[in-house]
Here is the input.
Amino acid sequence: MVTLVDAAAVVLVAGILVTLGESVRRGDVAALVNALVSLAATLVPTAAALWLPVWPGWAGPTSATLTAWIAAAGLLHSIGMLGPYESIWWWDHLTHLLSGALVAALVYAGLIALGRSPEALDLSGPAIAGLTVALTMLAGVFWELIELVARDLGERLDVEPVLVHYGWRDTAYDLVFDFLGALLVVALDLRAFVPIAAESIAATRTALLASGGVLLVGSAAMAALVGLGGSR
Here is the structure.
């Protein structure tokens, strides 16, 4: 049976396809690339459903809620690249709030699942909340550094950057709304994705460790590139 969430996911993905078509019509390469990335991101839950059965204990599909949430964040970002980021003052804030909450909800679910696992480290409520906020903020910093690198790369190649950096004040606001998104998830004790994370503790543990490592190493590498760009 098709649920309301399933229908919402389809509508949101269709919205991304519309922004993709509009990007092509305008000849806006940056908007086109971002719409394609957003579309690809919505396929991640489906790809995971096909791949995760190789992990011990995995028995169920991913949630339509996850697809819908990714699609909603991707649609807001894709539309924003077509103009609202510059013309509507709150658009970027809403996008970061939703995206930050999505990252936090996934991390929160993973940590709760690990905390329930007999072989996992004992994770208290405050520890889970703190780690959720910390990893969400690290993801936010990583994204902001990617924007800076995209700007520098665009300037060096004399092309329009795929991502636009609007200045340090905008960066500060972005991180504030990432933080608020994480805070909402923790405060509301949002456990929408716990059933998914609990399907396979091995997959969840690997995903959290790999994500944390990529964010740490990636942020350091991006910061180094930004520093090199600024020294020229």
Notes: The chain has a mean pLDDT of 87. The CA atoms of residues 108 and 131 lie 8 Å apart. The chain has two domains: 1-88, 90-232. The two ends are 59 Å apart (CA to CA).
